[in-house]
Design a protein that fits this description.
Blueprint: H1 2-29, H2 34-139
Helix pairs in contact: 1-2
Length: about 140
Amino acid sequence: MADDNGLGKGLLIGFLTGSVVGSLIALLYAPKSGKELRSDIKDISNEYLEDTEEYIKNAKVKAHQLINDGKKKSEELVSEAKVKVDALLEEAEKIISVAKHKTDDIVENGKNVFSEKGEKLKSAIKKGLDTYKSEVNEEA
């Protein structure tokens, strides 16, 4: 797109330059008096100056439009990105919450299993001691 714009500008500048040079050559070879020739050159110069000013004015308007369009587009992109980031953060918070609950459940289950196994071990040790004591008392 930028290449097309540069090509268009180049063609327009080339056309304007060629028109000015061609007009000046035509005026110089025309059978007119010096005063008429100078007047014609001045008129043509003024016309080209007005055309150039109009071209610059249009270019400024288009540049402002492009800048405004770019600002609007960037604001839209930023807004969309913010919405997506907020959604991702919310999803991440949900995942963390679920993981925390699962971890809490696993830890609680582990405590319960450890407590049960500990009670069984205590019971087994107590029975072993009781058996040992009873055998020691029988032998004595």
